[in-house]
Amino acid sequence: xxxxxxxxxxxxxxxxDWSIRDFHGYMTPNGSTYNNYLILDEQVTLVDSVKHSFSxxxxxxxxxxxDPSAIQNLIVNHIEPDHASGISLIMKHMPDATIYITRxxxxxxxxxxxxxxxxxxxxxxxxxxxxxxxNLMFIETPMLHWPDSMMTYVKEDNLLISQDAFGQHYASASxxxxxxxxxxxxxxxxxAVQDYYANxxxxxxxxxxxxxxxxxxxxxxxxxxxxxxxxIWKDNPSKVINMYLDMANGKADLxxxxxxxxxxxxxxLMTLPIMQGIKDEGVDVKIIKLRATPKSTAVKEFWTxxxxxxxxxxxxxxxxxxxxxxxxxxxxxxxxxxIVGAFGSYGWxxxxxxxxxxxxxxxxxxxxxxxIQLIYRPSAEEKEQCYEFGQExxxxxxxxxxxx
Length: 404
Ligand code: FEO
What we know:
Elements: E1 4-7, E2 10-12, E3 15-17, E4 22-23, E5 26-27, E6 32-34, E7 37-39, E8 44-47, H1 55-63, E9 71-75, H2 81-84, H3 87-92, E10 98-101, H4 103-112, E11 119-122, E12 128-130, E13 135-140, E14 150-154, E15 159-163, H5 177-183, H6 186-201, H7 205-217, E16 224-227, H8 237-248, E17 253-260, H9 266-280, E18 284-289, H10 295-304, E19 305-311, E20 314-315, E21 318-319, H11 321-332, E22 339-346, H12 352-363, E23 366-367, E24 372-375, H13 380-401
Parallel strand pairs: 8-9, 9-10, 10-11, 15-16, 17-18, 17-19, 19-22, 22-23, 22-24
Antiparallel strand pairs: 1-2, 2-7, 3-6, 4-5, 7-8, 12-13, 13-14, 14-15, 20-21
Helix pairs in contact: 5-6, 6-10, 7-8, 9-13
The site of MU-OXO-diiron (FEO) has 9 residues, from helix 2.
């Protein structure tokens, strides 16, 4: 897609990845984009490079505006390879440019590429690069998303270039929020923001709140947020800031998601009466089978619901492997403010439900115990017990939900 002007003399020169479906294990059914921005000023400045395999796309977009050798500054807001693995190729076309980067960014970049022939300026929060008519202020945002991360604020344009934060993995021909909502839908955009937050930023809610407060204390007006993935927030940047604050403060829907896997359909047979019991208590409910659903999608569903029931058959005295994998992924995301329970079928010794509660305890999640487990296949009486378990869980979820 050709270079797109986002502010006078500031252009998106990034690339759209229509075909990526596996983003380091995070499934991206809608693809992604790798955004970067070219500022045409007395000193031409590029903010972020691009994923290596898309370097030619960014270079062509730059060439449509200016010869790459005219670029005097490259700002590296984030060194993760989806943004910085194209840096060596891009720097070949602008070898005299100075790279602006945090200390941790430089140290990290040294581990990926040979930086010995490039000029660097290490920057900190509040430092300013004057490019002629514009002042670009750097704001360090460690752990949003990596220790090196920072944002760049273009003062004269009230533009925050926010790297990973406020992004979405979504390939579309729309470059702006209003355009996306008109061409696709607001619900699809909300879903993409939640999916991205759940899989990338869930562990950092406290940091997010602190960083947003810090930016607000700086008193800098923001009328556009340009992230490194997905659409640019032009019509309503406060929408995504409020969504982030809500998520960081524990907002979720009054809904239960049942996430399970099954061997011979017995655990699966338990999900239906449990689901009915939840629904009959007036709580929305959804069922996700793990081997039919990417774990990143299951995590998004977990994150948007207040309650979650995890179902697993017992295999070799423990959890079914796909359930164990999901819980390992979830544990790393350090979820909070959710209530959980467990159920499952076993053949002889059992063990899966106990392992599930052990995992919940390690995550310090609110639990409804003891869960429900049964031998082999649920009888008619046990299906009734599953129904009642669903009802009881839904009542606990409604009670817990009042805290938020
Ligand atoms: Fe889009 Fe943390 O990289």
